[in-house]
Amino acid sequence: MSSSAILTIANLSKHFGGIHALNGIDLQIHEGEILGLIGPNGAGKTALINTITGFYRADSGQVDFMGHNLVGRSLHDIGRLGIGRTFQNIRLFKRMTVLENVMVANKTYAAHPWSAFWGFGQRRKAVDEAMHWLHTMHLSHQADVSAQSLSYGEARRLEIARALAGYPALLLLDEPAAGMNEGETEALIQDIHTARSQVKAMLLIEHDMGLIRSLSDRVVAMDYGRKIAEGSASLVLAHPEVKKAYLGEDE
Amino acid sequence: MLAGQIVNGLVSGAMYALVAIGFTLIIGVLDKLNFNHPEVFMFGGYVGLVALPHMPVAGAFALAFVVGGLLGVLTEWMAFRRFVGSDARTTAALSSLALGLILTDLVHKVWGTEPLRLPPLTGWLSESFGLLGVNFLNLQMVLLAITFALMWALHHVIAHTRMGRQIRAVSESSAHASLLGVHVLRVNQAVFFISSGLASIAGLMLALRADTVSPDLGLTFGLKALAVMAIGGMGDMRGAVLAGLGIGVLEALMFHFGWGRLGELTVWAAMIATLLLKPAGLFASGHHGQEQRV
Amino acid sequence: MISDHLFFTCINILLAWSVYVSLLTGSLSFAQGAFMAVGCYASGYFTAKMGLPMLHATGLAALIAALIAALVGYPALRLRGIYLILATLGLTFCIRVLLENIDFLGGIGGFGGMKGGDLPKAAVAVVLIGVALWVLSISPLQRVFDAVREDDRVAAALGINVTAIRLIGFSAGAAIAAVAGMLYGHYMSFVRPENFDVTLSIYVVLYLVLGGVNNLYGAILGAAIMTLLPEYIRFLADWRPTVFGAAILVLLLFRPDGLLSFRPRTALSKHGRTLSAPGV
Q1: How many helices (H) and strands (E) does chain B have?
Q2: Domain boundaries, given as residue ranges, for chain B
Q3: What are residue C189's phi and psi, to 5 degrees?
């Protein structure tokens, strides 16, 4: 496993009024690894993803992604640079079909207005590519179904397929297993392994500790917008600070 | 005479403020734009047309308030009741727009599209007085006094009464308020009643000052109050008052220096500039505008 | 005269389409009256005062309208919802006041001298623009528009340049409104700024809301109903605003997407697709 860092976060802070969502956090994600991110609700995990990807504007600190500075960049710049993500509360394009959701994420096909207007010639290729991603996430039989009528598990898989369709170097997954039962979670582990081979590195936010243990190469624990522990899954989960942080809420 | 113009500007400003307060109250509580508001303002003048031959001015004001308020409650029922939530904002705005079309058309049908003269004011109201070499109309003073009294009353209701507390609770979060036992529908109705009642009074004031009622004048003025509201800050009552007075005086000054024809342009250009540069409004203390920028 | 009615129907279809194109990217614009005015005055100036042929004048006028839209839109399109509605309303007022004060364009008194607008030209415009919109609706760009309209932040995170897309929609809408303005001006031969006021902008939006906001046919239906029916049903003509307002009210309660509420299928849909992987 190469140890070069894909993403380096230094002293990143973001506050809303009096609340510090991120409070000077440092973090690195290395090439080839899946980094698990855990912490109680409100620790700032989603805020971290939001700040990395540009949904929030950082107040201070640095985010370096493969040599590019991300702070202050627009959402679509960051997307184009090669970061893909899913959303905690699932944000699919409900009024489109499953296939269309993935096709719209195809950067060469959909990103430039002029070629998108005349792009009929590229259509076959783009459809095939999108079907490939759907097949990877076991959704190809649902291709023409409206995204609105998907089950919870299917919707989450579609979000991953859509994120992968942009060929990201870094994939950020925000609680992909939330609301899933045991069978679905097992299948998800397989899907994430598949996804792993498509990207250079992954960040996985999860509350399901079993998932974290089986997928993460390393784990970082957060609370109150800061990193409180870092290391292997077993190390972090046994860490006193981490236990204390979780004792404050129902698991 | 500059001082006279400025007083006139203040009176206009006071009227802008009254209408803008109504707009902004509904934005603050329901987070929606009531496009029927300018039409209710216009209608206030017509209430005066009907009432003034039969009752003293004070009675006409009271009647305008009640009629306007009722129109407001009707608007809430027809154009806003079904459309709850922030996704329905545009739909609610369009609905109220449609309602406004109907109201304007009805006015055209009953009273025609041309301006009509109000019965002339008699007695003390039609007189003027001199102070420091400037001629002031009693009417202007009365209008200003009424406006400030109404604003004070509104402030008192919002800040010190039970209904006011409920209004504030709903404007923070209607979900939370309802969980705390606040009857959100009653609050919405009250807000519409107050806001439209004020607009109607302002419309009567405009008609009294101009001595005529007309649909066009009412609508133009009413829509300008929309701009005033945006400049002062959406959802911010203090901002509405300050912006209203400010714009009123500004227009008067422009008129005085011979730039009258561009006066209208100023208001709308100022609104556009505010929306682009400081969407929360020039005088606002809140952060209503922040979610609106991508 | 039926050709008159049809002519105005064409104009209204174009105007409703101009709202539609802008709405495709999520911007509900009340500024179409302003862009129509720009198109009318600019093209009128080019033909009547500079002697350009109508086609060239139209092209230039549409370009000017699109440029103004892009300039104004660049900062303004970041506003959403009711803020954008207000800003576009403001734009309509501003353009009207400006035109009333620019003397070499006739000021309040009006501007005239252009001629040559007629039903065949209007019909050609409707057909050409309609075809362009149809091509758009089956192209991938339509789905990009949909993504931007439905959730612009997620669309941006997927690499789509949302600002550019919005500008395209808004400017294209302005250009179409300008074409309508050109036809109108050259038909009436004489126009005044008050012909392009807020009421027009509002009506045009409501035509689209009535007919259907999700596809290009809604504009045709809404404009046709509201332009043609009053010509043949006296009651509608006399009570046009009331009937229209009532229709919109009822419609918004039960069918907020308009009468024709279906969404167009694009070429991305299942037609002609092959599966790339066996089995699944």
Answers
A1: 11, 4
A2: 2-108+133-285
A3: 70, -15
Check CB contact of C263 with chain A, cutoff 8 Å.
yes
What kind of fold does domain A5-247 have according to CATH? Rossmann fold (3.40.50)
Within 8 A of C97 by CB-CB distance, chain B residues are 261-262, 264-265, 268
Q: Do A118 and C139 touch (CB under 8 A)?
A: yes
* Best A80, A91, A100, A154 residue to mutate vs chain C (most C CBs within 10 Å): A100
Partner-chain residue, chosen from A93, A109, A119, that has the shortest CB–CB distance to C150: A93
Residue (of B198, B197, B196) closest to B151 by Cα position: B198
CB contact under 8 A, C280 and A135: yes
Element (H, E) at B17: helix B2-30
Q: Note the pLDDT of residue C201.
A: 93
Query: Does the ipTM exceed 0.95?
Result: no
Give C257→chain A minimum CA distance, Å: 13
Q: Which two tokens stand for residue C221?
A: 């239906």
Contact A100 C168 (CB under 8 A): no
**C90 to B268: CB separation less than 8 angstroms, yes or no:** yes
Residue B233 at interface with chain C, using a CB cutoff of 8 Å: no
Model pLDDT for residues B113-148, shown as the tens digit of each residue: 888 888 887 777 777 777 777 777 888 888 888 899
Burial B254-273 (b: 16+ CB within 10 A, else e): bbbeeeeeebbbbbbbbbbe
Per-residue pLDDT of A150-191, as tens digits, reads: 988 899 999 999 999 999 999 999 999 988 888 888 889 989
Q: How far apart are CA C102 and CA C104, in angstroms?
A: 6
CA distance C159 to chain B (A): 15
Sheet holding A68-69, edge to edge: A19-30, A5-16, A60-65, A68-69
Q: Identify whether the C-beta of residue A105 lies closer than 8 Å to the C-beta of residue C143.
A: no
Record the pTM. 0.88
Q: What is the CATH number of domain B2-108+133-285?
A: 1.10.3470
> Looking at the domain covering C2-254, what would its CATH class be?
mainly alpha
Q: Please name the residues in contact with C246: beta carbons below 8 A apart, sequence gap of 6 or more.
A: B98, B102
C206: Cβ contacts below 8 Å, ≥ 6 apart: B94, B97, B98, C222, C226, C244, C248
Residues belonging to chain A: 251
Flag residues of chain A having pLDDT under 50: 1-2, 251
